[in-house]
């Protein structure tokens, strides 16, 4: 129970990552395709990306619930989560810009807050 309390943020973020992967895996073309969208943006919600997201989310959740969540593991988890969520934030922002939306859509806003949360927790979170 001690590890659950100490690492609750990382557990929740791991679950969010896993759920994003499940959503991409279950939903065909989650990211709609506005005209003139770069090719790589059209691929980021395909099954290979979904599987990677689910694996990373499962790993982060599992490791954060154990006593093996050391500083080295925390650094790997932080880097991986920041990379993934920043990548999707940029993809969603690019999607909004190319799609001529006047304000950012909810996916862009939510991923932006997740990136901010991961950065704040990595700096000011509980250390072992």
UniProtKB/TrEMBL annotation:
<keyword id="KW-1133">Transmembrane helix</keyword>
<feature type="transmembrane region" description="Helical">
    <location>
        <begin position="106"/>
        <end position="126"/>
    </location>
</feature>
<feature type="transmembrane region" description="Helical">
    <location>
        <begin position="9"/>
        <end position="26"/>
    </location>
</feature>
<feature type="transmembrane region" description="Helical">
    <location>
        <begin position="75"/>
        <end position="94"/>
    </location>
</feature>
<protein>
    <submittedName>
        <fullName>Uncharacterized protein</fullName>
    </submittedName>
</protein>
<keyword id="KW-0812">Transmembrane</keyword>
<keyword id="KW-0472">Membrane</keyword>
<feature type="transmembrane region" description="Helical">
    <location>
        <begin position="46"/>
        <end position="63"/>
    </location>
</feature>
């Amino acid at each position: 129970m001690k590890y659950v309390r100490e690492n609750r943020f990382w557990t929740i973020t791991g679950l969010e990552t896993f759920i994003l992967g499940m959503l991409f895996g279950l939903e065909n073309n989650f990211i709609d395709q506005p005209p003139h969208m770069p090719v790589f943006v059209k691929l980021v919600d395909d099954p290979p990306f979904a599987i990677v997201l689910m694996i990373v989310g499962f790993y982060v959740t599992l490791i954060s619930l154990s006593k093996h969540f050391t500083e080295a593991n925390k650094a790997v988890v932080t880097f991986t989560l920041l990379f993934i969520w920043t990548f999707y934030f940029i993809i969603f922002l690019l999607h909004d810009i190319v799609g001529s939306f006047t304000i950012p859509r909810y996916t862009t806003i939510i991923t932006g807050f997740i990136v901010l949360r991961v950065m704040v927790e990595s700096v000011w979170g509980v250390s072992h």
